[in-house]
Amino acid sequence: MPKGKIEWGKLMGKMSPYMIQKGLRYLKHYGVKEFWVRLHERFEPEEVPYGPWYEQYIPTREELEKQRKKKWNYGPKISIIVPAYKTPEAFLRQLMDSLLAQTYANWELCIANASPEDASMEYVLKEYAKKDSRILWKKLEENKGIAENTNEAFAMATGEFAGLLDHDDLLAPNALYEVAKALETEPDIDVLYTDEDKVRGDEVLEHFQPHLKPDFNIDLLRSNNYICHFFVVRKSLLEKTGGFRREYDGAQDYDFIFRCTQAAGKIHHIPEILYHWRTHQSSTADNPESKLYAFEAGKRAIEENLRQNGLIGEVSHTKDYGFYRVKYPVQGEPLVSIIIPNKDAKEDLEKCIQSILEKSSYTNYEILIVENNSTGEEIFSYYKELSENSRIRLLRWKREFNYSAINNYGAKKAKGDYLLFLNNDTEVISPDWIEEMLGFCQRPDTGIVGARLYFGNNTVQHAGTVIGIGGIAGHMFTDMPRERSGYMHKAAIIQDLSAVTAACMMVKRQVFDEVQGFEEQLSVAFNDVDFCLRVREKQYLVVYDPYVELYHYESKSRGAEDSKEKVRRFQSEIEFMRCRWETLLKKGDPYYNKNLSLVKWNYSLKPKD
Questions:
Q1: Are strands 170-171 and 267-278 parallel, antiparallel or unpaired?
Q2: Which of 14, 326, 429, 587 is the most buried (most CB within 10 A)?
Q3: Angle ∠(126,131,136) on CA atoms, nearest 5
């Protein structure tokens, strides 16, 4: 089936009165154009279908049996916390069966039943508690709301760690084993979370929509509660943070995750699908409109996290339920130095400069054009024209092309506290592009901010860079239509990454100087990736901001890598990166996931061997 086409058979197979009603809700919310885009994204064929992939992924019976026999040096008790309210009997049984199937034995299940009038629930709970002494339950006199109900379950816990489980969801049989294994390796971990998928059906469950997560990512967490399930926290930390807060009902776990991760010494991500989030008509997973109040509570949770971190930011909802944007206002009016290397490309440079001058709403900037051995009269005539603008300076780099050296030279001549590296074949789209980048770059924890770039045909050229894609590093979502948001909205939301392209990249001058600029041994390729990784080594964040949008017509002035010398140079730069970043390349990008492809740009599943 051609890429970009809806899998109509799959779509028609999902048709039901409820699905039609759901579709109409989404149509009303998004409008025709946005709804059509999302329909395409949802029902496009999967490059690697998840159902068969998952069947190959899950542990075999032999593996599970081996896990059950493991002798533990450190095997902490894990209390599973469940607030239950009007839980259908079948779902309640399946939940408890998923605990009884665990290959790790040192657990307890703490259920707070907030449906005192539901005889069926009480019967089932009594039955299972009699069957296994690790199953504990408490009848609440009334429904106190999800936060207080959960706190009642917390109060029952005697384990060293507590894991949150919704009353209609399921744990994979190896979930607690994987948690215990991580804790045995690193006993100082305070917080753990895992990957998850969704399930639907009654007796036979269909697994779909895997959520394969990165390691801890604070800006992604402020864009969406990506951690969600399965979340495990050291009980002493839980007590320190004070449990759930009822004023955040609907997003009480989001608020709790923010507070726990902020207080945690070590946060650990287990890149395994260990939690199954059930979808049905009344669940938020399948019907976001059933809990619109939850999204407002989520917004308040982000605002509180910003306050707790001493940050000023304006939080707003995006068009997509449960996703947010944080906009950081610029403090003061610092000078931004825009550094643009150029050789001959008069037409490209003119388009770039005009877009900066005409579209930028921020005014305190200077433009440094680093001229590199141009030969045409046309470009020098244009330089003379630009010299009449006091905010534009022309610098001359007379040696051979070396992207790193040219930009390092421009940075030495720049007067600003913030350096904005920009290719000459870019064109500004967002008027507030400088303010948007500056708002992030002024944060104490941030060193670099990157942008979302498009080819001239309105497909994505860059939406962040992942280490290991294509061997060394690659841009994500290349050639995806501009209007799309990508896997888990990754192309459309703010997040931290290992690298972004220097085709449009803002850097704190202090950070630039701290890592001594770009690596001049990398004259053409991967210099921006190497630079970002060295900034990350200094514990600064590299932020991808999709609200900074530009066209990038891509590297015309440099020419193709078509000579023997250029090919040899490119190969030497690949080898340089392999040697310098060998450990990272072997271990994998912490902002990606080991189950995702390294040969595709769109967060496709990595095929099973």
A1: antiparallel
A2: 326
A3: 55
Q: Please answer whether residues 71 and 180 qualify as being in contact, where contact means their C-beta atoms are separated by less than 8 angstroms.
A: no
Q: How far apart are the first and last CA of the chain?
A: 24
Q: What DSSP line would sit under 331-380, residue for residue?
A: PS---EEEEEEESS-HHHHHHHHHHHHHH-S---EEEEEEE-S---HHHH
What number of helices (H) and strands (E) belong to the chain?
20, 23
Considering all CA atoms of the chain, what is the largest pairwise distance in Å, rounded to the nearest integer? 90
Distance, in Å, from the CA atom of 48 to the CA atom of 599, rounded to the nearest integer, reads 13
Q: Please report, for residues 170, 348, 415, the alpha-carbon distance to residue 262 in angstroms, rounded to integers and kept in the order given.
A: 27, 45, 36
Q: Do 504 and 450 meet the contact criterion of CB atoms below 8 Å apart? A: yes
pLDDT bin (cut points 50, 70, 90) of residue 562 is low
Contact 79, 235 (CB under 8 A): yes
Helix (H) or strand (E) run with residue 206 in it: strand 206-211
Query: Which helix (H) or strand (E) covers residue 385, if one does?
Result: helix 377-386
Model confidence over 487-527: pLDDT tens digits? 999 999 999 999 999 999 999 999 999 999 999 999 999 99
- How many C-beta atoms surround the C-beta of residue 75 within 10 A? 15
CA gap 323, 318 in Å, rounded:
6
Q: Point out the least confidently predicted range of 270-279, 337-346, 439-448, 565-574.
A: 565-574
CA nearest 557: which of 409, 371, 354? Answer: 371
Give the C-alpha separation, 420 to 549, whole Å. 14
| Residues 430, 436: Cα–Cα separation, whole Å | 9
- C-alpha 195/C-alpha 192 separation (Å) is 11
Tell me the torsion sign for CA atoms 551, 556, 558, 559: positive
Tens of pLDDT, residues 396-427: 999 999 999 999 999 999 999 999 999 999 99
Residue 112, classed as helix, strand or coil, is: strand
Tell me if residue 474 falls in helix, strand or coil.
Answer: strand
pLDDT at 289 over 80: no
- Cα(258)–Cα(262) distance, rounded to whole angstroms? 6
- As a whole number of angstroms, the distance between CA 366 and CA 553 comes to 23
Q: What's the rounded Cα separation, in Å, for the pair 202 and 94?
A: 9
Helix (H, G, I), strand (E, B) or coil at 596: strand
In which element (H, E) is residue 392 found? strand 392-396
Q: What dihedral do alpha carbons 387, 376, 569, 600 form, nearest 10°?
A: 80
Verdict on whether the full-model pTM lies above 0.90: yes
Rounded-to-integer distance, Cα 230 and Cα 248, Å: 19
**pLDDT (average), residues 180-203:** 95
- Distance from C-alpha of 156 to C-alpha of 159, rounded to nearest angstrom: 9
Cross-strand pairs, 231: 164, 193
The residues near 544 (Cβ < 8 Å, ≥ 6 apart) are 450, 452, 463, 464, 494, 495, 496, 497, 500
Nearest-angstrom CA–CA distance, 561 and 549: 27
Neighbouring residues of 139: CB distance < 8 A, sequence distance ≥ 6 = 113, 116, 122
pLDDT band with cut points at 50, 70 and 90 for residue 559: very low
Sorted by sequence, the CB contacts under 8 Å of residue 364 that are 6+ apart come out as: 333, 334, 335, 336
